[in-house]
Structure formats: C-alpha cells, structure tokens
Design goal:
The complex is a heterodimer of chains A (194) and B (287). Chain A has 194 residues and is mainly α. Chain A folds into two domains: 76 residues, RNA polymerase sigma factor, region 2, helix turn helix motif (Rna Polymerase Sigma Factor, Chain: A), CATH 1.10.1740; 92 residues, Orthogonal Bundle (Arc Repressor Mutant, subunit A). Chain A is built from eleven helices and no strands. In chain A, helix 3 packs across helix 4 and helix 9 packs across helix 10. Chain B folds into three domains: 66 residues; 59 residues, no CATH class; 125 residues, Phosphorylase Kinase, domain 1 (2-Layer Sandwich), CATH 3.30.200.100. Chain B is 48% helix and 19% strand. Chain B contains eleven helices and eight strands. In chain B, a hairpin with a 2-residue loop joins strand 6 and strand 7. Chain B is elongated and about 90 Å long. Classes of the chains: A mainly alpha (194), B alpha+beta (287). At the A-B interface, helix 1, helix 2, helix 3, helix 5 and helix 6 of A face helix 2, helix 4, helix 5 and helix 11 of B.
Amino acid sequence: MPLSSHRQKQFRTLTQPWRDRLYAIALRQADTVDEAEVWLQETMLRAWRDMDDLTDTITTYSWLLKILDHVIADDRRRSHRRRQIALVVNVDDNVLNRYAEAAPGPFEQLLQQQKDAQLLQQIRSLPENFRRVVVYRDIEGISYREIAYILDIPPGTVMSRLSRGRRLLATQLIKHAAIDLHGQQKKPSEQQSP
Amino acid sequence: MKNQTAETDNNQQVKWQTLHYQLQDLLAGYVDGELDKQQAAIVEAHLAGCKPCRDDVQRQQALAFRLNRLGSQTVPEQMNQRLDQLMDETGNKHHQQPSWQSYFYQGINRITKNLRQLPLSPFYASGWVIALVLAIVLFLPVKTHTLVKTGSSHIPMIDDVLAQYQQLSHASLPVSDHTEKTVLPANWPDAHLLASWATTVGGASARVFAIRRGDQVLFQFRINEAVFFRNATVRQAVARRGQYQFHHHNIMVIAVPEKHAGLLIVGPTHAIPAIQQIKHQPGQVDV
C-alpha cells in the first residue's frame, strides 16, 4: 500500500467518527449552515496538515476540537466579528430575585418548556468566551482539563468562565421568559378593560 | 461606640460580599465535582448561609442537565462526500511519499524525544542499553487489543449492559416485541434472533436484541450515539481501532460505532464472533 494512501486511511479512521460532533459544534456557533460547513472543511484540512502533532497524550476529539476552535476564532478575527468579551460579568442577585422564574423549581420548569432551538439561540448570544466553555462542557460533556487544553487557558479559568456563562445564560432565559409571560399581561388595553 | 459597631458590621458585610462574588466563580466546579476537598468545604460553608448561591447551584445543575440533552446534528451526506473527496485530493497532491530513510530518522527522533522527556539520570548512566531496550519496546507491533481491560469499566454504558447481561443470564427474557421484519444490528452466519425489547443504557433509550449462537445467548444493544461517544477512552479506542473492548472475567463487551447510533455486543468471550464475521445493518435507536 502506498504510504500516502496508508496515511490517508489512518487519517480517515481517526477523524471520521468525530465529523458529526464537530459539525454540530460548528453549527451551534455559526450564523449559517454554510459557515459551519466551511469551518468543518478547514478543520479537516488543518488536521491533515498537522497530523503529526497528534500524540498519545491527547484524545483525537480534543485535538480536532482545538483545531476547530482556532478555525472559528481566525474566521471571526478576519471578518471582524469577534464578539465583545465581557471581562466582568456579575449578575446582581437582586436582578434575579425580581423574577419568579429564578427560583429553582420554576427555572427547571422553564428549561423543560424551552425548545432546543430557543436554547441554542440564547447560547449563541452569549459573549464568545463564555459561549465556548458552556458549549464544550454542558453540551459536549468535555472535561475541564480538556477544555483548558482546547482553549489554552488554566482549568481555574474554565471553571470561572463556566460559572459566569451558566449564570448569564440562566439570566437571559429568565428575562426572556418573564417578558414572554408578563409582557402580554401588561398590555394597557388588557389592564383597562372593564 | 455605636459608630464603631456600625463600622465593624459594615466591614463584615463588605468581606462577606467579596467572598460571595469570589465563590460564585467556583460554583460550576462545585456542581461538576471539580473542586478539591478544601475548596468544596469553603463553598459548602458559604452555601449554608447564602440562598442566592444555593439557588445558583440548583439553576446550574438544571441547566447542565438540560443542555446535555440537546439534540445533535449530523453531517449531510453530500458534505461527507465532499470532505472525503477533498481529503483524497489533498492527500494525493501534497503528501510526498517519504523514503525509508525519513522513517528511520523519524523513529530515531521519536526515541530521543521520548528519552529526553524521561526525568531520570539512570538513562544517562546506563546509556545505550536502556536506549536499545526502549527502542525495541517502541517498535514492537501494537497488539490490536491493547485497550482490553479487566475489572470495573467505570464507563456507565458498559456497566449498564454488563449488569443487564448478568441479570438476564439468571432470569427469563422479557416479552419480545420483535417482528419478522426486525433486523439485527450485527449479524453473523449462526446468529438467531430470540427476542428484542426496549431498555435504557447510559440514561437514554436503547434496544436489546437477544441472539442465540450455538448453545450460548448473546445480547446486542443498539444505543444512543451521544451515550456511545460520551467516554474519552471509548472515543480514543474507536478512533484508533474502530472498536472498544472490555473483558470482565469470561464476559466480553465489544463497542462498535454505527451511523447515528452505537452498538454494544455482550456475551461469553468464546461465543463472541470475530469482528470480520460480523455484518452491520445500520439503523437508529428505535424503541
């Protein structure tokens, strides 16, 4: 067997099982399906180019995710779409306490009522640094250590970004739900009806 | 005096508030069990007196649980083909066939690189003897079943199917809902479908197929794709060898990926057919 085709076969065996998952992650961050496809294609090309970097200490999936993460970051940088990084995100407890949906029981109910698409829309609107850790940890189930490797940040930073990202996402969901629920009730016409 | 007390109270309040904000950054780690003992003890002490943080923990738990259950997307078939084509073209265009010399030098580089990473001085003392031994070990062909393990798998899906197998070995099979049209996910010449029913593996819906092979009964579990790929060891084994194997005494579990699903075959080790004998029938978890 020619060496190039042996290498190709090896590459395909290593990467093919992860295509769907990489595509799903790309879709969760892309604005369009086409964009996700371009990212996946670029990821595969870079993976092929850098195949020798894959060592026994890295799982294939983390390695591919790191490449995809760089591809997305590069693309956003090129198109000046890098979303504003919120350096300090502290949601005031008082803000949350104003909403009945913030209590654990109602919040759980709220989550169950949310369609996947609605949740994904809220995730997409998170600041980039928080969105990435939430996607990798909560949707993909990747360990803190692996996320730290993918994003080149210390595990402690993964933890703080995840805490803040989840808190921010919960706040967004609660506020949206409150607007949906109470916004209609507060229509002047309804309030003034005899 | 009153002023002093008020100031002390105020200082306490500021300290508590600062700690409250600092600990908020650890709450994800607390929810995910990633804190060390000391950190966990500090967080727990704070949680006992802080309702907003207790609520935050519960919201994070609910959020993580819900997000983990988001549906997944698969690569459209056309795109898969395009990717295959692209990889073929890229491989043929850019990959120059290395000579045997380049492989030799790569091997030497790898050995020296590995040796340099060893934090030991005995290597330098023993010199080429250890280098030679390590070189032999490094170049030994890797056995296909290097990832075979014994004892508890610590992988929920494997433990689930093992538990169900052991339970079913001592009980009668559940009522089957299979029909003549039921297709076995993995078929081999002397496989006879006995029964099929719905179950759960790794917390998600799955389907079991009981098969007779000679005088042995084996089970196939077609499971959720997300559950199948949840564990890093399984992912790595599948990426490297196309399958993951687990041995527990004389019982064996083989995990093979399918398109949109995963397949686990469990049974006595000697009754599990060779992987070459198995014909896969793709399908999804249909319960």
